[in-house]
Inverse folding.
């Protein structure tokens, strides 16, 4: 017997499909909100990896198939996709609050004040994004009016230029979402204090008449760094504030530079090397390298610690990143060393120190960035890093050996076996081929550094998915998404530093700094010592990539003026900043290693001291004996 429904129940049943439809609609919106950028990033990364590899294949493997002048249009399309992917990755990084910033001072404030400062920072970042969007769309209209087109495909230049306003519009949307999330659990007074802080900080721009450009530019930059604004935006917002106060450059220069600064084929090596490191760092490749290193050195006192150093040297020739090397190797070796009786602090410190080799030995992302900023040959910078990187690794091995012997930390083997070593080398052959592909391709004249990086990324995908089969489609998606965001943080830094650098050039800051230093001494050795001391101090408080893009235009002219080769100076700068990876308070490698080991940072610092002294000694050798860096380079000239 059926039961008659009440009028209310009948009404509910009538509306149920509508509510289900609304629920599906909301789910769709949430899915788009969560995955919009990362889906496009993965598609973009796969596309330009494929195109650059196709370009290389067409040149050497299939020269008889010339598809619509492929070597021209693949590069152009790849560059423009890369620019879109970079700004999409920057938007996703903002959403994930994944940025390079200095928060040591802000973290000491009460929670309420931290939230207020965060509100002030977001207001500035939003206004900067708004200015880029509005002026960027004006620039696009100008491109349409003047009918400018791309060289290879003859498509309107307005299309690639649209990456800038579209990217910053997405960044603005993510900033608004973050702002709403921050204010949801915030007291009204904290929000009002945040608005007051923003108004107070911008007051000099409003009230000052004739202002000194250099003072405003660096004053605001330092101020924004101190209050924890992401360094990339600190560069951009300080430039915008200075331009608003002084009209030093036209406002449309900002979006134009945001595009032209990364419309650059060499800089595309960064996402490729990042992708290769992430893909190969989480699979069997790293394990096979560890096995080979263990067979080579595991029988010596401190065997596992020595294995960590040698594996870091191997993996550095794949990843180009210090933190990536620490994370990949530390996860496997730190617990094993502690289990064998090593001091937890030293076990963690050795992995952190060995990870610094990743930014010295080629391929190195910091060397790529230095090459782009300084307009030096990336190939020469790579080959210049080989001997300093190897010497650093050997020095760390010697010091670690004696420390381990003194403390009675024995290896996990008793004898060396040539047979087992050869077997391990054969099993690791696919990993050992990677640096051969990269460096052999570059120095054999077969590929540019960017093409070699793209081949390494494709190689990692093929090996991971079809040979070792330790990466499925989901793993590939995660890895490419992570690579896109990681590289976008670097690329956004370059964009903002290029905008910032325009005012530095205009005000001849580099010449002023050079004159000030030369007034202290004209002795080359003294000036190099001062440069090292300055860069070591910078490494204490600033992330390496940020320091490179900010300081290279200022310090390089001075180094050249005293007779230092630009390639040699690049190695000096990178080595100094590599030491910054293991010195607090910023020390990225320290924090990554401590996180893996679940140790207090203080415990790791105690273990790092003898290794830090070792690296400073090597730094002085690299600084005062240019041949260490330039001997191999001389064969290229």
């Amino acid at each position: 017997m059926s039961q008659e429904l009440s009028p209310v129940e009948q009404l509910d049943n009538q509306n149920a499909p509508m509510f289900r439809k609304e629920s599906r609609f909301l789910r769709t919106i949430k899915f788009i909100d969560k995955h919009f950028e990362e889906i496009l990033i993965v598609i973009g990364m796969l596309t330009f990896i494929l195109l650059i590899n196709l370009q290389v294949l067409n040149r050497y493997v299939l020269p008889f198939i010339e598809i619509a002048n492929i070597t021209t249009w693949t590069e152009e399309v790849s560059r423009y996709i890369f620019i879109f992917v970079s700004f999409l990755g920057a938007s996703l990084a903002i959403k994930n609050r994944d940025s390079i910033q200095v928060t040591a001072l802000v973290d000491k404030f009460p929670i309420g004040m931290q939230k207020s400062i965060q509100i002030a920072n977001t207001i500035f970042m939003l206004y900067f994004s708004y200015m880029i969007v509005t002026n960027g769309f004006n620039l696009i209209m100008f491109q349409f009016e003047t009918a400018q087109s791309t060289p290879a495909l003859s498509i309107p230049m307005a299309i690639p230029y649209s990456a800038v306003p579209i990217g910053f519009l997405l960044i603005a949307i993510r900033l608004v979402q973050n702002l709403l999330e921050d204010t949801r659990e915030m007291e009204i007074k904290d929000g009002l204090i945040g608005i007051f802080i923003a108004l107070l900080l911008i007051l000099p721009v409003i009230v000052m008449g004739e202002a000194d450009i250099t003072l405003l530019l660096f004053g605001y930059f330092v101020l924004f760094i101190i209050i924890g604004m992401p360094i990339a935006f600190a560069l951009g917002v300080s430039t915008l504030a200075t331009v608003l106060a002084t009209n030093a450059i036209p406002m449309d220069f900002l979006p134009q530079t945001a595009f032209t600064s990364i419309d650059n084929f060499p800089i595309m090596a960064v996402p490729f090397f990042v992708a290769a490191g992430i893909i190969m760092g989480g699979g069997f490749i790293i394990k096979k390298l560890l096995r080979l290193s263990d067979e080579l050195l595991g029988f010596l006192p401190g065997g596992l610690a020595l294995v960590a150093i040698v594996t870091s040297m191997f993996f550095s020739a794949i990843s180009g990143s210090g933190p990536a090397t620490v994370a990949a190797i530390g996860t496997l070796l730190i617990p094993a060393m502690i289990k064998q009786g090593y001091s937890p602090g030293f076990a963690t410190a050795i992995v952190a120190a060995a990870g610094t080799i990743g930014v010295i030995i080629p391929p190195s992302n910091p060397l790529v960035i230095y090459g782009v900023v300084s307009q030096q040959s990336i190939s020469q910078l790579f080959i210049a890093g080989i001997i300093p990187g190897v010497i650093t690794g050997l020095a760390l091995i010697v010091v670690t050996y004696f420390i381990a012997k003194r403390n009675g930390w024995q290896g996990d083997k008793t004898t060396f076996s040539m047979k087992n070593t050869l077997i391990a080398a054969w099993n690791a052959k696919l990993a050992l081929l990677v640096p051969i592909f990269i460096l052999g391709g570059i120095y054999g004249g077969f590929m540019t550094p960017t093409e070699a990086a793209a081949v390494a990324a494709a190689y990692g995908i093929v090996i991971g998915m079809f040979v070792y089969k330790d990466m499925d489609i989901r793993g590939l998606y995660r890895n490419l998404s992570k690579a896109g965001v990681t590289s976008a943080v670097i690329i956004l830094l370059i964009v903002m530093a290029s905008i910032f650098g325009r005012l530095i050039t205009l005000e001849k800051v580099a010449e002023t700094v050079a004159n000030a230093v030369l007034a202290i001494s004209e002795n080359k050795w003294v000036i190099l010592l001062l440069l090292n001391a300055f860069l070591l101090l910078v490494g204490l408080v600033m992330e390496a990539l940020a320091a490179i893009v900010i300081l290279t235009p200022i310090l390089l002219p001075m180094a050249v003026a005293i007779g230092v080769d630009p390639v040699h100076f690049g190695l000096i700068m990178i080595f100094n900043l590599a030491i910054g990876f293991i010195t607090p308070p910023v020390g990225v490698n320290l924090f990554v290693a401590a996180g893996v080991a679940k140790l207090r940072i203080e415990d790791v610092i105690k273990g790092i001291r003898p290794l830090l002294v070792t690296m400073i000694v090597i730094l002085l050798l690299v600084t005062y004996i240019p041949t260490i860096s330039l001997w191999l380079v001389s064969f290229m000239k």
Notes: Residues 7-60 form the longest helix (54 residues). The chain has 28 helices and no strands. The radius of gyration is 26 Å. The mean pLDDT is 85.
